[in-house]
Amino acid sequence: MTLNVAVVGTGPAGFYAADAVLKRIPDCRVDLIDRLPTPFGLIRFGVAPDHQTTKKIMRAFDKTAREAQCRFFGNVELGRDVSLDELRANYDAVIIAVGAGNDRAAGVPGENKKGVIGSATFVGWYNAHPDFRDLNPPLDTKNVVVIGNGNVAIDVARVLVKTRAEMAEADLPEHVQAAIERSPITDVYLVGRRGPMEAKFTNVELREMGELTHAAAVVDPRQLPEAVGEVEDERDRRLKQKNLSTLKEFVEHGAAAKSKRVHFVFFAAPVEIKGGDRAEAVRFERARVENGRAVGTGEFFEIPCGLVITAIGYRSLPVAGLPFDARNHIVPSREGCVSDGLYVVGWIKRGPSGVISTNRPDGAEAAEHIVANVKPAGKAGRDALARLLAERKVRVVSYADWQKIEAAEIAAAVKPSPRRKFTTIPEMLAALT
Ligand SMILES: Cc1cc2nc3c(=O)[nH]c(=O)nc-3n(C[C@H](O)[C@H](O)[C@H](O)COP(=O)(O)OP(=O)(O)OC[C@H]3O[C@@H](n4cnc5c(N)ncnc54)[C@H](O)[C@@H]3O)c2cc1C
């Protein structure tokens, strides 16, 4: 008998899991289900449009999707088109890999004002995620505040200040490029509660900020320590050392002769977003770091701005039929196993941390559990799913369909951009007729 496995979510975690199952059980059948017509999750919709090298991992996942045992069910949403109970009734094992695609609230007064946008939403907009096509962020401002000190915050700042020429090899949608080009933005403030040595930037991303055509990286030298200080972990110490050297280089280069600036502001905790209906400024409390934590000093200052992007983390939403840890925004599991035959992998399991390859061990763990504990029970698998979806008149996007969508995007690209992404689901489906 054949073992039928459903993987829900086709980001890195879903693909690593599919690959791990196929390697261990070569004669099984793996169905890859995604709510969007496009596979690859945040590789397409999160990873920055000007970091195409990072997106090359899609080629490896494409190989997995084209395996004879695999089938892609795109445009099929768990909870809307099919329930978890239905999947469990028809598959021997179900692996949930739906990620954490939502914004975490900043928890400061004023965050509901116009012009305050979470990074999941803003990054989705500039990466052509269909959910955010009509965001129309108010870019009619000179100053932008980005709250957060990780790579997503850097991505947002960089995309806002790069020129069209610098973006030529990216896959930024034209309406986004045009909106950024039209905007009067000159200064982006990247603000972190803690200090430069606690910031989560990786060095490649940080260095890039010193290499932009029209934008200078600005750092107040008084916020930089003389040296890194004691750090137990050697790898961590090396990263901090590199970041400190890079920040010191930014100080040396200065901002002369550049028309835009990205200001690195440390030791500042947001306490309020001020303004009327629209954000007009962010009020911060200066902080110092004690035992790794930011502690307020009672001294306040404001940065005027018409746009605030909060890049403070992503969160998952509950999945009907699965337990949910509402504090940590994850599905609780024992090493990925919710119960025999039901697994979680990736960000829905661990929370939003790490890089693409961090999700790989989750897939191996789930696959090992399936090998040890799940036997084929003669379930109908994909035939039953296809029947159910046909009854519900769901327009399933197959992998061949996705390849057509991709071919149309590549054909429409203005070289050297690799693709001109469709920005809505109807546009994608129209490319299939
Ligand atoms: C802005 C940003 C930039 C990043 N840049 C990098 C980088 O440069 N390098 C790097 O290594 N890592 C980067 N990462 C991290 C990397 O993207 C994540 O580690 C990884 O994508 C998490 O994988 P996942 O499969 O758990 O989630 P996701 O990639 O989010 O995949 C989840 C999938 O599930 C689907 N889905 C959701 N709900 C449903 C449902 N109900 N039914 C069916 N399908 C559903 C979604 O459409 C999506 O395809 C970045 C992350 C972000 C947010």
Radius of gyration: 23 Å
Question: What would you give as the CATH superfamily of the largest domain?
Answer: NAD(P)-binding Rossmann-like Domain
Total beta-strand segments: 17
Ranges where pLDDT stays below 50 over 5 or more residues in a row are none
**Helical amount:** 25-40%
| Biggest sheet record | 6 strands, mixed
Using the 3D structure, state the CATH architecture of the largest domain. Answer: 3-Layer(aba) Sandwich
Main structural class:
alpha/beta
Distance N terminus to C terminus? Answer: 37 Å
**What is the C-level CATH assignment of the largest domain?**
Alpha Beta
Kindly identify the CATH topology of the largest domain.
Rossmann fold
Strand arrangement within the widest β-sheet reads 3-2-1-4-17-16
Name the bound molecules: flavin-adenine dinucleotide
Beta-strand residue percentage: 15-25%
| Total of DSSP H or I helical runs spanning 4+ residues | 14
| Average pLDDT metric | 97
Summarize the entry for a quick read.
The chain is α/β, with parallel strands linked by helices. Helices cover 31% and strands 20% of the residues. Residues 8-14, 33-36, 41-42, 46-47, 51, 54, 77-79, 97-99, 101, 123, 152, 155, 314, 346-347, 354-356, 358-359 line the site of flavin-adenine dinucleotide (FAD).
Can you describe this structure?
The protein is built from 14 helices and 17 strands. It is α/β, with parallel strands linked by helices. The chain folds into 2 domains: 4-101 and 316-430, NAD(P)-binding Rossmann-like Domain (Rossmann fold), CATH 3.40.50; 103-314, FAD/NAD(P)-binding domain, CATH 3.50.50. A 6-stranded mixed β-sheet has the order 3-2-1-4-17-16, sandwiched between helices. β9 (215-219), α9 and β10 (260-265) form a beta-alpha-beta unit. The relative contact order is 0.19. Bound molecules: flavin-adenine dinucleotide.
